[in-house]
Amino acid sequence: MSSKRRSYTREFKMEAVRQVRASGRSQREVAGALGVPESNLTRWKKKYVENGDDAFSGDGNLPRELASIAWSLGADLFGVADLRPVHAVVVNQGSQRLKPFTHAMVAAVGLSDTVVDYADFELPVDNSLYGWHLYQAVSPRLDAIAWHLASIMERRGYSALPIPTSQCRTPGDRKAIFSHKLAAHLAGLGWIGKSSLLVTQAFGPRVRLVSVLTDCPLEAGERLDDRCGECEECVAACPAQALTGVEFNDEEGRDVRLNVELCGSYRDGPGTQSSRRGGHVCGLCLAVCPRAYPEQPGWRHPVMKGRSRGVTGNR
């Protein structure tokens, strides 16, 4: 039986050549360490000497290659967004420093259903398993993925700016330098629901996101249409009554759908850290969305049992 031929990405070939040229090890040692035939390294090195950074440029599809790298690092979803149709919005939110970037790579990690379903949203974040899951487990993984993808793009000669998973523009501000949700929506990873969260087909809104802005004209995905329909479970569940039930429109500001001050004030809570309800994230709008369990028609989160089902009202 013939063995399946192994394929190598452009990035792998470039790194192999770099090691041969700069590591001080012999070609045979590098080949052994990487697990590739030495003849491959000979061929790749020759191609690099002849073509420089343009070597292997015809190898494969770059977005597919980047997706493969993101998945290997722990991402569950990956996409590319063309930011040019919303460029004015991006620059207005993040300032002129974002003007050179025309595209964004977006990666997502799905949250643990068990952690979300059993979360106590009245605990402060420092005492919450849900909060620890978000900020100590998932977010660092995403930031590491973004940094790795940005490094790859820079080595190819492009500018690449990794945007942290969670960071406000200034202390006390309730807006980030860039909207991961908007980029993920443009990339086709999901739609922005009445909760103002990204809703994906695979995980519902139970995802965390990270983005890398770049000036590389990558092939982008296509946005998904809103699929919330008449459902307003998130609106009904919001303890701060901060959600209006208005469907997403990228020509309208966030305040049309979400009263950020009501939401933020509830999450901050009165008094000290120990008395705050939910710490940095309440999470009920995320937890109650039935899109997390599409295989279970009629599913409702336990906190919604006995309550009237949220339906469209567009308050």
Q: If you had to describe this structure to a student in words, what would you say it looks like?
A:
With 315 residues, the chain is α+β, with helices and mostly antiparallel strands. It has three domains: 10-54; 62-214, no CATH class; 233-304, no CATH class. The chain is 35% helix and 10% strand. The chain contains eleven helices and six strands. Strands 1-2-6-3 form a four-stranded antiparallel sheet, with helices on both faces. Strands 4-5 form a two-stranded antiparallel sheet. Helix 2 (27-34) crosses helix 3 (38-51). The chain is elongated.
Spell out the blueprint of helices and strands.
Layout: H1 10-22, H2 27-34, H3 38-51, H4 62-72, E1 77-82, H5 87-94, E2 103-110, H6 113-117, H7 129-155, E3 160-163, H8 180-186, E4 191-192, E5 198-199, E6 207-214, H9 233-237, H10 260-268, H11 284-287
Antiparallel strand pairs: 1-2, 2-6, 3-6, 4-5
